[in-house]
Design goal:
Elements: E1 4-10, H1 14-25, E2 33-39, H2 45-52, E3 57-61, H3 67-75, E4 82-87, E5 90-92, H4 96-104, E6 110-119, E7 123-129, E8 132-134, E9 141-143, E10 154-156, E11 163-167, H5 168-174, H6 186-196, E12 200-211, H7 219-222, H8 228-245, H9 248-272, H10 277-296, H11 302-309
Helix pairs in contact: 8-9, 8-10
């Protein structure tokens, strides 16, 4: 069996992390190495890990640098045949890792494989996510049909969140994630870069993880109106992704027609939810940076972004 490192990303979710690690350790295939990347938790996560999971290697970040930053920490240093990037809000099925590994190494051109995400929060029988992509015309989310035939084995995807098993050779060829994207769409950007090298990403529908986050979210949360940094990312990242991977005509259609509609919708919701002025300032900064990226291809560094919106 190929070797595997599991890298769990966490921030102030000690109890979720404990359940996640327990499910990994009690599976049919024990990972060769388990790492936890702690994004500056203040809830006693570090102490819990030292006490209850001494076999886990812990990396403590002094600030919350986002998912992509932690993913890059793991991608740049693992030495096994594969790497599972796992969020702390998963309770994996006992055979999930074993099934993913077998599938990943059954096909030379399969670079990434993911499990089916079930709604572990309140209805474990319900599928909450099984793949998708961003439309390069409109920027909207295109999600795979959750009512798939029982005999179907896989779904292709460009969205690779939450529990992503990556083959080492594909990771080495693709390089690191763009941490300037912070979280939203950074996974799709990475997957599309990998696809250009000839590697596919697929959901293995027989492998399962229970996603323990609440699926029903408020509109404010769904729109990123939770903090200025997330608002900035929502304003910017669609345009960045379409600029990088769409044709010129697709990008022009998006920027001249769809993007203004998105902006009007988000600005309306800022008024509706009475978002503070800092949110409006962040959103306008995202618009400016998306336009700047269209002409120059440049984006502010992760440290610059954090200084502006923290």
């Amino acid at each position: 069996m190929p070797t595997v490192t599991v890298a769990v990303i966490t921030h102030n979710r000690k109890e979720l992390l404990k359940s996640c690690l327990s499910s990994l350790i009690n599976g049919t295939l024990l990972p060769d190495e388990i790492r936890v990347y702690d994004n500056a938790s203040t809830d006693g996560t570090a102490e819990m890990l030292k006490c209850e999971f001494p076999q886990v290697k812990v990396f403590e970040n002094k600030e919350n640098f986002g998912l992509s930053y932690c993913h890059n920490q793991a991608l740049s240093s693992f030495t096994t045949d594969s790497l599972l990037l796992l969020d702390d809000d998963n309770i994996v099925a006992p055979d999930m890792l074993e099934k993913l590994l077998k599938k990943l190494f059954s096909d030379q051109k399969l670079g990434i494989v993911l499990p089916l995400f079930m709604n572990g929060y309140d209805d474990p029988k319900t599928v909450c996510f099984c793949g998708g992509e961003t439309s390069l015309w409109s920027g909207r989310n295109i999600l795979r049909d959750k009512n798939f035939p029982k005999e179907q084995e896989t779904y292709p995807t460009y969205r690779v969140p939450n529990a992503t098993l990556i083959k080492k050779e594909a990771a080495q060829a693709t390089g690191l994630m763009d941490d300037r994207l912070f979280s939203t769409m950074a996974d799709e950007d990475y997957c599309r870069r990998m696809a250009k090298l000839g590697y596919r990403a697929e959901f293995l529908l027989s492998a399962v993880t229970d996603h323990m986050q609440e699926v029903k979210r408020s509109d404010a949360r769904r729109l990123g109106l939770t903090n200025p940094l997330q608002t900035y990312i929502f304003a910017r990242n669609r345009a960045v992704l379409i600029k990088r991977y769409g044709m010129l005509f697709q990008f022009l259609v998006f920027m001249l027609f769809w993007q203004p509609l998105y902006h009007l919708y988000y600005l309306f919701n800022m008024l509706r939810y009475r978002a503070p002025g800092s949110f409006l300032k962040a959103y306008l900064a995202g618009i400016v940076d998306s336009i700047s990226h269209a002409f120059t291809g440049n984006l502010p560094s992760l440290s610059d972004i954090r200084q502006r919106f923290n």
